[in-house]
Amino acid sequence: MIRFENVSVTYDGADEPAVRAVDFEVPEGELALLVGPSGVGKSTVLGAVSGLVPHFTGGTLHGRVTVAGRDTRTHKPRELADVVGTVGQDPLSHFVTDTVEDELAYGMESLGLAPDVMRRRVEETLDLLGLADLRDRPVSALSGGQRQRVAIGSVLTPHPRVLVLDEPTSALDPAAAEEVLAVLQRLVHDLGTTVLMAEHRLERVVQYADRVVLLPGPGERPLLGAPAEVMAV
Ligand code: ADP
Ligand code: ADP
After folding, report:
1. ipTM over 0.90
2. Quick one: which of 129, 142, 144, 130 has its CA closest to 99?
3. Which segments cross the bilayer (predicted)?
4. Which ligand is nearest to the CA of 121?
5. How far apart are CA 85 and CA 168, in angstroms?
6. CB of 121 shorter than 6 A to ligand 2
7. Mind listing the pLDDT tens digit for each residue in 45-77?
8. What is the pTM of this model?
9. Smallest-distance ligand from the CA of 187
10. What distance in angstroms lies between residue 44's CA and the mean position of ligand 1's atoms?
11. Sequence-distant (≥ 6) Cβ neighbours of residue 161 within 8 angstroms
């Protein structure tokens, strides 16, 4: 579902590539972790999946990234929106509306869906994420874990086949983090969504993963022996 073939990204003005010769694959319906120390290129890899890199960041991408068979270099992020949902590190920067319900509806607005389909998808997503009681709440009045779930919900209503998340639990306490991870696991198991999630704390999330993609730092050896399949890239 996600395939990287010998992918290197060099940002404009940088001397060194941000990621170099990355090769991996995530099959449909798996939850994969993208692991590695800060600065190793996790956000860059996620951006290459959603098409933000290099379309919006500048720079050059060598090699090939395909998501559901679409080459992300030849499709603009907008042309990938029905395939890939992206949740960044800071949910607040995601939000464009006032209430939870409006936020979930917003992502579908450019898809040309009938109003009753949009309403049904909002209901279905509120239930899936355990947000039904919060539907009229201003997004600014939510806890960190609730915000993260709304951010996930807002990219789920278009029914993307792939979801990429950048350290979605990094600002959460353990209980809220577990709620978010349980939601992701439910998406994978119940709906067959493919999830790629960046995380620098492997131990917190590895039990939820089907696969681990490790981006080792310069000169480092690949980490081995994790409970999931570790692919050194
Ligand atoms: P991680 O997510 O693992 O912390 P990043 O992908 O954010 O790593 O960063 C990898 C490298 O690319 C870093 O050296 C970072 O400074 C650089 N970088 C990231 N984004 C940009 C950008 N938009 N422009 C220039 N350099 C960037
Ligand atoms: P519509 O496409 O008209 O919105 P439904 O809301 O009934 O139809 O959803 C169609 C199917 O999509 C249902 O079987 C439902 O389980 C499934 N579905 C629900 N949420 C998602 C999701 N986030 N991603 C993919 N499929 C989903």
Report:
1. no
2. 142
3. none
4. 2
5. 13
6. yes
7. 999 999 999 999 999 999 999 999 999 999 988
8. 0.91
9. 2
10. 6
11. 1, 28, 68, 83, 84, 192, 193, 194
